[in-house]
């Protein structure tokens, strides 16, 4: 194009530019403004994913939605485990694991109908588990001494009954057991069924560290497993415990015929508690012959993938909790247990027995932890790290 042609084009544009510059803006109605807002020239900042939210917060959150939890749960497994391990290191010493021992202080004769439990009197003819009297305080002391000598720092005591109502003498005796364990320098935990605040405070005064009362599974699946105690009764007991100043040990059982959505629902209930449970036991169901659950799930054992995903998701959304591998751990190979620890687990039950099922022994567990470079946690030493604010 020749120079004089370009100049002609430029001269032709100048009046047009000038007219725009000097022109008055056209009148615009308020309605038009509302209908046609000023366009955004930069795209809005995308909201954080559920995983990013879990990883970047500097304190536990108590308003997780089912959708957020499911999003985290369904994260590709390696990424999920990696994120959970990073979260674990933010809040915990990754070299420490708590060793816990559980003693059955009153076996059998429970009036509940939990379909998985061999201690229900409804199934005793088929399971062979008979009702027994509560053990003596001296027996508890001897068992606790043995557990302490083998490295356990939390001693738990379980009684097979529905609730503490009408068991004034039993509560007093349990209080003596708790005091004896506490005086030995060990943390103590009991699981005694439903309990009110007054009863819980009595145990608190005796030196009780934690009270175990599991929710077992999701609210939706719960009624397929238990009918004699409602889900809300369980939640009420947990709140009674927390209101009394005792730490709540609250988890559940995987392998009750539930679905992935039930794992999400289970975690939803726990993660929306305020405060979160101090201790979160994860049990792998050991189907016991003679219980109704045995026939239902004996060929449907929960897969490792589901266990790891549940633990990892729990670590991400309840970062301060101690996550315990509990009943059924003896069915897992060492590398499977290692995956659970990589995903945020930091406590195990160890010793001679888990109520009426097998348990990994002290020597076996201490050797395993040594191979992994892990050490037992000291009594009363657990305290989550202070986490400073961070951003995505």
From TrEMBL:
<dbReference type="InterPro" id="IPR058240">
    <property type="entry name" value="rSAM_sf"/>
</dbReference>
<dbReference type="InterPro" id="IPR006638">
    <property type="entry name" value="Elp3/MiaA/NifB-like_rSAM"/>
</dbReference>
<dbReference type="InterPro" id="IPR024177">
    <property type="entry name" value="Biotin_synthase"/>
</dbReference>
<keyword id="KW-0411">Iron-sulfur</keyword>
<dbReference type="GO" id="GO:0051537">
    <property type="term" value="F:2 iron, 2 sulfur cluster binding"/>
</dbReference>
<feature type="binding site">
    <location>
        <position position="114"/>
    </location>
    <ligand>
        <name>[4Fe-4S] cluster</name>
    </ligand>
</feature>
<feature type="binding site">
    <location>
        <position position="156"/>
    </location>
    <ligand>
        <name>[2Fe-2S] cluster</name>
    </ligand>
</feature>
<dbReference type="GO" id="GO:0046872">
    <property type="term" value="F:metal ion binding"/>
</dbReference>
<feature type="domain" description="Radical SAM core">
    <location>
        <begin position="92"/>
        <end position="320"/>
    </location>
</feature>
<dbReference type="GO" id="GO:0051539">
    <property type="term" value="F:4 iron, 4 sulfur cluster binding"/>
</dbReference>
<feature type="binding site">
    <location>
        <position position="249"/>
    </location>
    <ligand>
        <name>[2Fe-2S] cluster</name>
    </ligand>
</feature>
<dbReference type="InterPro" id="IPR002684">
    <property type="entry name" value="Biotin_synth/BioAB"/>
</dbReference>
<protein>
    <recommendedName>
        <fullName>biotin synthase</fullName>
        <ecNumber>2.8.1.6</ecNumber>
    </recommendedName>
</protein>
<keyword id="KW-0093">Biotin biosynthesis</keyword>
<keyword id="KW-0001">2Fe-2S</keyword>
<dbReference type="GO" id="GO:0004076">
    <property type="term" value="F:biotin synthase activity"/>
</dbReference>
<keyword id="KW-0949">S-adenosyl-L-methionine</keyword>
<feature type="binding site">
    <location>
        <position position="324"/>
    </location>
    <ligand>
        <name>[2Fe-2S] cluster</name>
    </ligand>
</feature>
<dbReference type="InterPro" id="IPR007197">
    <property type="entry name" value="rSAM"/>
</dbReference>
<dbReference type="GO" id="GO:0009102">
    <property type="term" value="P:biotin biosynthetic process"/>
</dbReference>
<keyword id="KW-0808">Transferase</keyword>
<feature type="binding site">
    <location>
        <position position="117"/>
    </location>
    <ligand>
        <name>[4Fe-4S] cluster</name>
    </ligand>
</feature>
<feature type="binding site">
    <location>
        <position position="110"/>
    </location>
    <ligand>
        <name>[4Fe-4S] cluster</name>
    </ligand>
</feature>
<dbReference type="InterPro" id="IPR010722">
    <property type="entry name" value="BATS_dom"/>
</dbReference>
<dbReference type="InterPro" id="IPR013785">
    <property type="entry name" value="Aldolase_TIM"/>
</dbReference>
<comment type="pathway">
    <text>Cofactor biosynthesis; biotin biosynthesis; biotin from 7,8-diaminononanoate: step 2/2.</text>
</comment>
<keyword id="KW-0479">Metal-binding</keyword>
<dbReference type="GO" id="GO:0005739">
    <property type="term" value="C:mitochondrion"/>
</dbReference>
<comment type="similarity">
    <text>Belongs to the radical SAM superfamily. Biotin synthase family.</text>
</comment>
<dbReference type="Pfam" id="PF06968">
    <property type="entry name" value="BATS"/>
</dbReference>
<feature type="binding site">
    <location>
        <position position="189"/>
    </location>
    <ligand>
        <name>[2Fe-2S] cluster</name>
    </ligand>
</feature>
<keyword id="KW-0004">4Fe-4S</keyword>
<dbReference type="Pfam" id="PF04055">
    <property type="entry name" value="Radical_SAM"/>
</dbReference>
<keyword id="KW-0408">Iron</keyword>
